[in-house]
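User: Design a sequence. Structure:
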């Protein structure tokens, strides 16, 4: 399941919980809290999804012994030094 699909699922659950909360003749604190929790969860998932390097955006960087994937903008901020062989990833 993709991160964005999870966020959409959480948002739809938030909408359902909010409907239950407003449809209730007495204030439904449990449903309102659930709606809040789902909304927070969806926001968190979206924040993480946009920060996560995808295979498409991240570039390959190599040192003397390993390969990593890193955003080009991160590499531009300064050298990333390998703790094993002591060489820069580039
Ligand atoms: Zn290395």
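Assistant: Done.
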């Amino acid at each position: 399941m993709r991160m964005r699909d999870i966020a959409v699922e959480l948002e739809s659950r938030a909408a359902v919980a909010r409907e239950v909360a407003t449809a209730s003749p007495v204030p439904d604190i449990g449903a309102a809290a659930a709606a809040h929790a789902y909304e927070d969860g969806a926001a968190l998932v979206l924040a993480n999804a946009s920060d996560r390097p995808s295979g498409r955006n991240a570039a390959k960087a190599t040192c003397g012994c390993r390969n990593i994937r890193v955003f080009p903008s991160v590499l531009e901020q300064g050298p990333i030094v390998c703790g094993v062989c002591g060489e820069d990833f580039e």
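The beta strands are 59-62, 67-70, 80-81, 88-89. Residues 63-66, 82, 84-85, 87 surround zinc ion (CB under 6 Å).
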